[in-house]
TrEMBL record:
Superkingdom assignment: Eukaryota
Organism: Ceratopteris richardii
Keyword terms, alphabetized: ATP-binding, Chloroplast, Kinase, Nucleotide-binding, Plastid, Transferase
Entries under NCBIfam families matching the protein: guanyl_kin
SMART domains: GuKc
Gene Ontology CC: one annotated term: cytosol
Recorded catalytic activity of this chain's protein: GMP + ATP = GDP + ADP
Family: Belongs to the guanylate kinase family.
Protein's name according to its UniProt entry: Guanylate kinase 1
Enzyme Commission designation: 2.7.4.8
Length: 257
């Protein structure tokens, strides 16, 4: 997420476990009371929840929506029970099981972290054994990664997601369109072939009007402030259009016009 901040956001889970040193409420987890969380689950506010290592963990619908509303793909760090539940949901997701190189190395890492007592370490190791068996279940997981060397594991993850082909600087640069979009004041709009064409504006009288194409085919939601997956194609000058100055619908490519 640090490398691709405009593409991915983290779903901040709720948990009843105590915060570790340096863990911040609302950033790493929403640390919460069990009674509050149980009620919220009953009220249908959670996409999934599970008892993991003796504490309650869960992904709230609001946590996922908050990432989706920013137009980003949501990353969930959840256990196997959670993965099973999400698999049954309507979410279009990729499931990646990340395994330690061995149980011995996991034990060494957990001890090295120094945040669990002996009983909790034993519980985590016992659960890890069971989880490792599920990790190879291809009816849940699309990919299985071994987290030996962290950098190598990350490179492999990027390869699986096709991110090795993405130029992170270019993705960052795409955000600069936002500033440009915000600066357009006067505009007119037309609906052509199921797409909204917005012609702006008075940025600079010496410059040709800008053109924005809004791909309406992929819009989700509709409640005020809740519309997501809007795709915009921005043309600063009409002459940049593939068909000169004509408003002709072109074939779809990568979800864009
Ligand atoms: N590639 C790695 N090399 C060294 N240490 C690592 C590596 N990956 C993770 N760790 C460390 O191992 C410890 C356990 O990490 P892990 O993410 O598996 O914990 P967890 O989420 O508590 O485990 P679980 O998902 O099994 O409940 C952490 O201290 C983490 O920083
Ligand atoms: N089912 C869910 N599992 C979750 C969620 N958030 C985290 N987790 C998993 O819990 C364990 C332990 O995490 P830790 O932070 O206490 O070490 C780990 O496997 C996480 O993946 C959740 O929302 N739902």
């Amino acid at each position: 997420m640090k490398d691709f901040p405009s593409m991915f956001g983290f779903s901040v889970s709720h948990t009843t476990r105590q915060p570790r040193h340096l863990e911040r409420n609302g950033v790493h987890y929403h640390f919460t009371e069990r009674s509050w969380m149980e009620s919220a689950i009953q009220e249908g506010k959670f996409l999934e929840s599970a008892d993991v290592h003796g504490n309650l963990y869960g992904t709230s619908i609001a946590a996922v929506e908050s990432v989706a509303n920013d137009g980003k793909r949501c990353i969930l760090d959840i256990d196997v029970q959670g993965a099973r539940a999400v698999k049954k949901s309507a979410l279009d997701a990729a499931f990646i099981f990340i395994a330690p190189p061995s149980l011995e190395q996991l034990e060494g890492r957990l001890r090295g972290r120094g945040t669990e007592n002996e009983e909790q370490i034993q519980k985590r190791l016992k659960n890890a054994k069971a989880e490792l068996e599920c990790g190879r279940d291809s009816s849940i997981f699309n990919h299985y990664l071994i987290n030996d060397d962290l950098d190598e594991c990350y490179s492999e993850l990027k390869r699986l997601l096709g991110l090795d082909l993405v130029d992170a600087n270019e993705v960052q640069g795409a955000n600069s369109n936002q500033a440009w979009l915000d600066s357009i004041h006067g505009h007119s709009a037309a609906l052509v072939g199921g797409n909204v064409f917005v012609i702006g504006g008075d940025i600079d009288p010496n410059v040709e009007p800008a053109l924005i194409i809004i791909d309406t085919n992929c819009i989700v939601g509709g409640a005020p402030g809740q519309t997501t997956r809007l795709r915009l194609v921005l043309h600063k000058h009409r002459s940049e259009l593939p068909n000169g100055n004509h408003f002709v619908k072109t074939s779809k490519e990568n979800g864009h016009l």
